Amino acid sequence: MWAYWYFDRWPYLKFILREASSVFVAWFAVVILLQLNALISGPAAYSNFQRWMATPAVFIVNVISFVFVCFHAITWFMLVPRVMARQVLHRPTPDLLSAAPNFAIWLVASVVVALFALRVI
Asked: Which of 1, 71, 82, 104 has the fewest Cβ atoms nearer than 10 Å?
């Protein structure tokens, strides 16, 4: 087996990308912890945190991280039909129908967070 076996087929590459995306999930967790620490430390510390977040390098890392975190979530949600029993009236349900509740909750949570961020609610 060669070192880059996962390039042979899309499912293998998708698996490796999903596993690698965990690094970006961890990055977002660290950023949130840093943000909370800056909030606790006062306005000057939070201002420094905001300046750091606005630097081009951090912005680019965050955009790349956002893409990988979305990929991680989508592929994770699409695994649900493979790991749970999903029959309605003794007939198997379609994969997307089994994963749809996860996507719906994700959408609702995203809208609520966006409304808070935009100070609408």
From this structure: 1
| Interatomic CA distance for residues 98 and 6, integer angstroms | 27
Distance CA 54, CA 62 (A): 10
CB of 110 within 8 A of CB of 69? Answer: no
- CATH architecture for the domain at 5-117: Up-down Bundle (1.20)
Q: Residue 15 — pLDDT band, cuts 50, 70, 90? A: confident
Domains of the chain, residue spans: 5-117
pTM here is: 0.75
**3 state DSSP class of 92:** strand
Answer yes or no: is pLDDT of 113 > 90: yes
Cβ–Cβ under 8 Å, residues 15 and 71: no
Measured distance CA(31)–CA(39) in Å, rounded: 12
Torsional sign, CA 97, 103, 108, 111: negative
